[in-house]
Amino acid sequence: MPERHLGPRIALLAVMLLAGCSSAPPATSPSVTFGSGATTPGMSGMPAMPNIPAATTASTQGSAPPVAGDAVAIDNFAFVPTTLTVAAGSTVTWTNRDEEPHTIVANDGSFHSPGMGSQATFSYRFATAGTFDYICSIHPFMHATVVVTK
Amino acid sequence: MTDSPHSMSRRQVIRHGAWFGAAVGLAVAGGEVISHAAGTAQAKQIPSRPTLRFAQVSDSHIGFTGKANPDVVGSFSQAIGRINNLGHAPDFVIHTGDLTHLATPAQFDQVKQMMGALHTPHVFTVPGEHDSIDDAGQKYLSAFGRGTRGDGWYSFDIAGVHVIALVNTLNLKKLGHLGVEQLDFLAADVAPLPSDTPVIVFSHIPLFAMYPDWGWATDDATQALSYLRRFSSVTCLNGHVHQVFAKTEGNVTFYSGTTTAYPLPHPGDGPAPKPLTLPAGKLHDALGIREVSYVRGHQALALKENTLQ
């Protein structure tokens, strides 16, 4: 299905390669001056060092238990269902079915998850009635609501 | 310089620049027109040492484990190798964010260690939203925030060019966001500069509206760009969208860079910006690094995209 993407083998976006500049090119690297005059941001690159550290395997955050009851799935960059209604005192569990990480962040600040990797879950107990809108803080175009009834 | 047989008049330069801005979409689809322009006799007479030359790398997503790229460490190593084999040491390397996938201390350690192998005097970074997932960028700042202001922004001058690195991945509502404090910094930062100073701006999320439905825009960018309107040459380089794209608006040219990790769909192609798994052997065509050079006296920067193929 992802049959086309970024056509060019070499996207040579060269522009303004004009001649006629007669000023002598500098012989050495130009120096960097920071307005603050304080510690310089960034880090130094190193002289030749071919040994790159070996790959480490990033851990995923636990495996997903079966989703049951008051559950919201994160699928295809969407919360399913978009509106979930539960009784006060219920615990809602979100499961990230995407390869991409997501988060659960309440607009009113009442709850927020850590970054949830693929298949990670997050649970939160809604003690009081109300309407709770939330987003994924990494992809804030994703939004949904939990309605808590008495 | 108009009497030199190899130079363009100012009008020609402007027209050429506009043509380039308009033709970039074609370049991504075909490239032939652009390579023709770059392959003229004039191009061969470029001084071997531009006033400034640097490399951009972006969206390494160290920690990603999906099938779209089972080895993001390997492809980022390849990108570093590509930069180290440009034939010269770039004056600096900028990583335009999403260094890590999940902003864990181990992922920050790893990406920092890997970038230590770059052959360049300076490595600069801006954070992506993946680098500030659950702590408003605190772990990013402990790894890369030394010497920066506010939530990680800064500026510097090099070879007569003013470079500004902005943070637009915090306090997201739907789009990228700079915030009042950073906008004030920007206004004060550029206030003393003469209008003919070339300005380069780095950010993770685009400062132009590339595709707002997927968050590919910055809600208060218009305010930021208003401070840069008086400058004759402004170049904004970003990551985030995992694909090469360019757009010119007046005096400002925006260039989205590609990723070293995995491609994303073209804007609006499909329901969501989810990682694309390409057919076997195609992934490295979509990954790459960018060389940028600037020659004093020319308005526009020269960009060259290199795939990891």
Instruction: Report strand % of chain B.
Output: 15-25%
Care to count the β-strands of chain B?
11
CATH H-level superfamily of the largest domain in chain B = Metallo-dependent phosphatases
The proportion of residues forming helix of chain A, as a percent range, comes to: under 10%
What's the β-strand tally of chain A? 9
Can you characterise this structure?
The complex is a heterodimer of chains A (150) and B (309). Chain A is mainly beta and 150 residues long. Chain A is built from no helices and nine strands. In chain A, the strands form two sheets. Chain A has a four-stranded mixed β-sheet, with no helix packed on it. In chain A, strand 2 and strand 3 (78-80) form a beta hairpin. Chain A is elongated, with a radius of gyration of 25 Å. Residues 1-26 and 48-68 of chain A have low confidence and may be disordered. Chain B contains eight helices and eleven strands. Chain B has helices at 10-29, 32-38, 72-84, 105-115, 138-144, 180-190, 221-226, 283-286, and strands spanning 52-57, 92-95, 123-125, 154-158, 161-165, 199-203, 234-238, 245-249, 252-256, 288-294, 302-307. Chain B has a six-stranded mixed β-sheet. A five-stranded mixed β-sheet of chain B has the order 3-2-1-10-11. In chain B, helix 4 (105-115) packs parallel to helix 5. The interface between A and B is large, with 72 and 128 residues.
Summarize the structure.
The complex is a heterodimer of chains A (150) and B (309). Chain A has no helices and nine strands.
What labels would you give this structure?
heterodimer; A: 150 residues; mainly beta; Immunoglobulin-like; four-stranded mixed sheet; disordered N terminus; B: 309 residues; alpha/beta; Purple Acid Phosphatase, chain A, domain 2; six-stranded mixed sheet; five-stranded mixed sheet; 8 helices; 11 strands; globular
Write the SSE topology.
The complex is a heterodimer of chains A (150) and B (309).
Chain A: E1 32-34, E2 71-75, E3 78-80, E4 83-87, E5 90-96, E6 105-106, E7 121-126, E8 130-135, E9 143-149
Parallel strand pairs in A: 2-5, 4-9
Antiparallel strand pairs in A: 2-3, 5-7, 6-8, 8-9
Chain B: H1 10-29, H2 32-38, E1 52-57, H3 72-84, E2 92-95, H4 105-115, E3 123-125, H5 138-144, E4 154-158, E5 161-165, H6 180-190, E6 199-203, H7 221-226, E7 234-238, E8 245-249, E9 252-256, H8 283-286, E10 288-294, E11 302-307
Parallel strand pairs in B: 1-2, 2-3, 5-6, 6-7, 7-9
Antiparallel strand pairs in B: 1-10, 4-5, 8-9, 10-11
